[in-house]
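Why do we care about 3D structure at all? Because function follows from shape, and shape follows, mostly, from sequence. That is the central idea of this module. The next example makes it concrete: a single protein chain, its amino acid sequence, and then its structure expressed as tokens.
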Amino acid sequence: MAFAAFGLDKYAHDLVFQYRNDDRETINQVHKMRATVAYGLERFWGEQLRLEGRKAQYWADTWTKLVHIMAEADMTIPNHDDVETMANALWDSQIFSIAHRKVTLAILTQLCDCMVWWTQRYKPTANIGNNSGDDDE
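And the structure:
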């Protein structure tokens, strides 16, 4: 497969921007997303089922964006509503090859890394009201 820029940073920005004004717990889900990547795609996908409200929606929107990104690379990721069907599809190498799984995990890792960066950029600085002009915190 040839390299193509998929605009991961732009996708990450848009996801974070959409949730930037939510409560701190929702905003910080991105750190949990990044940590969950290490446990595999099925666990990442499943977190949206465990959570509620905006937190669950943030995970679901991130998964949906990953599906879109991978479709741009001509790779179809299983995306079902049913837990058993979804888990089986992600684990079945006839449906979703090991090579595609590895590439998808790498892309998800990078997407989450970008999201962490944007989350940090949109958090208010600790010195609000300090007119020193130093905004590098």
